[in-house]
Structure formats: C-alpha cells, structure tokens
Sequence to fold (750 residues):
Amino acid sequence: MIAKLRELLGYRELIESLVVRDLKVRYKNSILGFLWSLVNPLLLMTVFTVVFTIMLPNVSIPKFPVFVLCALLPWNFFHTSVIGATNSIVQNGHLIKKVYFPREVLPIATVLSNLANFMLALPVLFLFIIIFRVPLTIWLLYLPLVMAVQLAFTIGIALILATVNVFYRDTGVIMEVLMQAWFFLTPVFYPVDILPEWRTLWGIALPIRRLTYILNPMASIIASYRSVLYGFTDGSPPAPPALDFFSRTIVTSLVFLVVGYVIFTRYSPRFGEEV
Amino acid sequence: MAIITVANVSKCFHLRPDRPRSFQELLVNSFKKRSRHIPEQEFWALRDVSFTVEPEETLGIIGPNGSGKSTCLKLLARIIQPTSGTIQVSGRVSALLELGAGFHPELTGRENLFLYGSVLGLKRQEMVRRFDEVVAFAELERFIDIPVKFYSSGMYVRLAFAAAINVNPDVLLVDEVLAVGDQSFQAKCFERIQELKARGVTIVFVSHSLDVVRSLCSRTLWLESGQLCEDGLTEAVVAHYVQHVHDKEEALARREAERTSQPDKGKPEKRVGIEGAELQQTGDTAFARASIPAREGEPALSPAAGKQAESPADPLAPYRKRWGTLEAEIVHVRFLDKEGRERLLLTTGEPMTVVIEYIAHRRIEAPAFGVAFHRSDGLHMHGTNTALAKFDIPFIEGHGEVRYSTDFLPLLEGTYYLSVAIHDTAEQQTYDYQDFYYKFGVRLGPVSQRFGTLYIPARWEHVPDPGKRVGEAEG
Fold:
C-alpha cells in the first residue's frame, strides 16, 4: 500500500498533465471559454433566487444569491467530478490497454481538474459576497480545509464509481439520475433549518434533520461551506462549523477516501482486460 | 543480474459470455430463469512460461497468431496481470504496443507530446530537452502547433512513433510496430531501434517478420499455443520455427490438394481434342482411365489442380487448359525436395526434381517433354524442353517417368504454376499439353535473398587494391 502510494506520487506529473489537458480542452473551443462554465451555476442561482424570493416570498432568506451560490459551486464541483470520474477509466481505455501507469491517476485527475474549475469560479462568489455585503471574516481560513474534506470525499466516491463502471457500463447513466436525486436531498437551495427535527412516517418517528447529515456527507460538507462563507439564515455572520460536527465530517470523508482507494486498487489490475 | 525475470507465468482469460455487463443486464438476468446458462470458458494464453532477459540483450519473440506473443508483452508492460507466476522488470519500461495511444484530438502536437511523455513516465524537463529532437524525428516541425485532429494519418503515426521511441527507456517492448509510415520513415525507426540497442537498452521484440527478428535479436523465444517451444540463439530458433511452419503449410497444401483432386474422373472425355473420338475406341484408353482413379486414393497432389478451375482462391484458374491428341498422356506430376520427399512447398536455393509420369498409348518415336514455370501473376519465368536441352528420348511406350532436376531452385518465395507437355521434337504434334496445371509454393528457407523474381547464385568480391584479393563473400 505504501509502495503503491509512493508510485502514485511519482506520477504526479502525469496527473498534472492530465488536469492541464482537461482544462485546455474544456476552454479551448470557445472564446468565452471559462465564462461558459459559470453560466450554469449563475443561471441556477438566478432561478432559485427568483423562485424563493419572488414566487415563494414567505421563505425569507437574506442575501439569497450568496446563500445559494456558496452551496451551488461546491455541489457543481462534486457533480461534475463524480460524473466525469465514473467514465474516466472506460473513456481512457486506449491508454489503459497500451501503457502502464497507476490507474487511479485518471479519476484523480478528473476530480482535480474539476477542483481547479471550482477554484476559478470562487472569485465570482466573492464578488457576490462583496456586493451583498456579507461580512468577510477570519473564518474564511476554514475554506481550504472544507475544500480538502470535500476533495477527499469526492475522490473516494470517484474511485468507487470508476471501478464499478468498468464492470457495469451503465453506471454513468444511473449516476446521472441518482445525482439529481442527491441534489434535491442535499440542502443546496434550501436551508437545513427548514427541515423538521422529527417527522413521523408510518408510525416511526424519524429525526429528519439529523438523518440528512448522517446519511448524506454532502449535506455536512455543504453546511460547512455555508457556515464559513455565508453565515446563517437568521442573518448572523459566518462562523466556524461546530467542532464535533465537522470532525465527524472529516472522518467520514477520509473513510470514503480509504475505502475507495482500497476497492480501486483491488480491481485495477483487471482493468487492462476489461475495458 | 537479469533485468527481466519471468517465472512460471501462466495467463488465463475467462470467457464468460453471459456475465452481465451492466446493471440493466444484471437486473434482467435475475428475473430470467437460469435455463440457458453458458458455462464459463477458459482460454490459456500462456502456460508456465519462464525466461530471463539480461541487461542490454535484445530478445525476439516469434510464433504464429494466437501463440501468446502479445499477451507476453502486455504482461511485461504490466497492462495485464498473470494468473500465476511472477514477473519482475526493473528500470523504466516503454512499450510500443500501439501507436497514438493517449493523443487528444483537440490538443496540438506539442501539447500531446508532453502529455504522452508524462504517460510514459518522462519528467517534464527531460521532455523539454528532447522536444526538438522528437519533432525533427517525426518531420513535423511545421505542424507541431496545430491540433492533431487536423493531422493526416501519416503525420499522426509519425508523431506517435517519435514520441514513443524517444523516451529513453531502460527496457523497450516493441510489438510489431515497425510497419508504419513510408519506407524512409520505417528505415529511420529501424535505425533508431538499432541505436537504442547499441546504447544498451534492453529490447523485447515481437514480430512476424523473421528478417527483422534475425537482424535485431541475438536471442529468440518461440511460443506455440502459449507454451515456450524453444529459447536460444536466433538463427537456430528461427530455422526450427521456419521448418515447423513449412511442415504445417505442406500438410495443409496436401489436404487441399486431396480435397480438390476428386473430380478428375471422367475429365479426359471432355478434354480430348478432335482425335479424341477415335482415341476412345482404343483399348489403351480403358487402361489409362483405370490408372487415374487408382492415383486419387493417394495423398498425392496428382492432377492436383483437377477442380481448381472452380476454386475462387485460384486467380489463374482460367488459364488452366489441356489440349493434345492424348496419344501419350501425362498422368501424374510430383515435386521432390532435396531428400527426395514429395512436396508441394519447395525451398529457394535447394535441389528440386519434377517427376512427370506418362502413359504412351502407342509407340511414339522421338518425343520431347517440356516444362514451363509461371508465377502466380502469370509471368512466364522459365520454359524448356528435352529437345532444346538435346536430351534424346528415342521412343516412349506404356508407362514411364521423366525427371527434370535442378540442384538449385532459383525461384523466390511465392506461388508458381508448372505447365508440362509431351510433343514431338519438331513441336509440330502435341500429344498432351497441360498448361498452368500444377500449382506449387516456394519458400525462402535459409537464404537471405528476397528482392526481385530470381535468386541468382553469385559471389561478391571486394578488391580495394586490385593487386591482391581481399574479402570474398557468398551472396
């Protein structure tokens, strides 16, 4: 395992090149290039703002565009990474079949290029933060840590799905649907406080809000982003995520990363014959 | 200390036709009855293969299709894993398994080169250092900054080869890739491989081109059905392999000849000329016809070509003709090799005998026997007859054989057709002329001559100072 990790480290230039390739291809064909990648989150932000401040005015969340954008951008990063990484092995079959390199390079590079994309979009978020006069606090220093946690979780999921897709080729299609469901189940465009603490379904009392956090690591991650970038829906300024809550998120993400890596390296020797 | 160690390696591919390839299939299958379960099949691409390669050695791997050559190379390149056994390769391995791998159509040649370099494990500075050289090698200086999607296929392949061969590996694995580009580019690639070899790069080379293996590799492995048949000096292994292949081809040609010889029965009636009618009255014909079926039982080529007129694989079938009075008939033709064994495949530069069996239905004075060789494209290679050779046959009557022998078959590799004839010395009267009747193959064997149409046995001499003679060589 240590040897494998060291080998992976030796291939960081390859990861770098693949990330650069990804970004170049993505932005090459249009002059507006990178601006196009902002269209999607900005459009969604506008739609949600219109829906929740004009069409449904009784849900009153201050500075709604910032509220939704600071969750939408991380979610987009997650979404594009997962979908991209799921296909990364199969799509690069021509490489897998002809050259040896640690196979995990491919999904990792996909995730990293989406991370780069995410970071390129951050200035726009800060622009909105400034426009809407959301206070910039010292807790912003948490941002890289939150991003690292999300990165670990995303790579873990990416490694698992990339592996599954080699053996079951419709994983990508299924994930498109599941990701949509996941998006709605994650408090991206609605605040988690809107959820009831308890809800009784078929006679069973369910702690809905707790379950959302426990079953959905993305909910915790998004909540952390919101906590350090936006603050809270009652108008209070940004604050660090609660320690116990955040450390649970870190542990969960690391577990996903390790499990994903183990699964991936267990099956990757067979990729050469399966793709 | 060996640079490559392969110990008892086996590779089994599991062929599972009914393994679900998607969740959809998985779901559908779980509802279906397990009635038509197709059992898993195993295919052993390699079985218990062991060998080592020393540093700076150039190893060739030869064998027929499906013998496990490419599997072996893929295992060495770590693209697939062995089912059992161990493989150790030390140093940087560059594998030329297929060209163009990893090229992205949207990126320029320059960007792709850097990407490809890093896929092959080359450091960026190293790539920068070698960049101009690689581009010059690919002859793409003018086009290096346009996206490769605009490249012609030739440009694409040149770039790929240049990229792959210039990564400065410790071990180079090459799978049948020298057949790219035009002649001069091929020569350049070949030269480059020679250069790497001279620089001490360990090379494992898989090829169907025995000439290339001969000129590059000092040692050669011969794989057959996944098993190591022979491991030794290239000359010996290649010679044994060639012998083996030719034995197999010979057996195949015989089987084919046997299959096609059936319908010769009754043909003489169709073929006879004007005189045929009266010929059939004679008692001798009955004897002649009786003798032909007797031959067909044999595993011989006999009127080998009997039904070749209908075989689509035979482009010269329309030329196949027979005419003559049939007062004397050629009933059988055999080719013998240097050991006097009957063969359908002969070897360039070796002795050959053509045995022409005839029946003369009456006494014929001063006949002449002729032979003519045509190449498969119809080119008349050679023709002669006993009269021209001043070889007198006073008369023929009944059964007999005429033999045409050479100590040195000058035909090069290919398929040839033999025409045989009996006529009178003045070539006025044709008794039996069988044009393009007997097909045979020639293989190169141990000689290295392979250009043109003929092997002219000759000698080279080099006289730098015409006063004294130095450096004679057979050629």
Observations:
- Chain A has a mean pLDDT of 86.
